[in-house]
């Protein structure tokens, strides 16, 4: 009989899980050694630009 195992991820870590398509991740990794910082920067700029756009 097989036993099921549950993986428990602490809440702060669970909030940081994001699925990124392999080709996108490869592109960011090729740009900089600090690819996670670059991803965060791109996402932050996107959000800031969306906030400045008038609502339709």
Write structural notes for this entry:
- With 56 residues, the chain is mainly alpha-helical.
- The chain has a domain at 19-52.
- The protein contains three helices and no strands.
- It is extended, with a radius of gyration of 17 Å.
- 0% of the residues are buried.
Notable traits:
56 residues; 0% strand; mainly alpha; extended
Count of alpha and pi helical runs: 3
Low-confidence stretches: none
Task: Please give the oligomerization state of what you see.
Answer: single chain
Estimate the helix proportion, in percent.
55-70%
Terminal CA distance reads 58 Å
Decide which structural class fits the backbone: mainly alpha
Q: Approximately how much beta-strand content do the residues carry?
A: under 5%
Count of distinct strands: 0
Alpha-carbon Rg, integer? 17 Å
Shape: extended
Instruction: Give the overall pLDDT as a whole number.
Output: 82
Question: Strand count, sense and closure of the main sheet?
Answer: none
């Amino acid at each position: 009989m097989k036993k099921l195992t549950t993986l428990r991820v602490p809440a702060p870590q669970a909030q940081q899980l994001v699925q990124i398509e392999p080709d996108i991740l490869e592109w960011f990794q090729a740009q900089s050694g600090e690819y996670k910082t670059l991803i965060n920067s791109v996402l932050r700029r996107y959000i800031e630009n969306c906030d400045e756009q008038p609502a339709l």
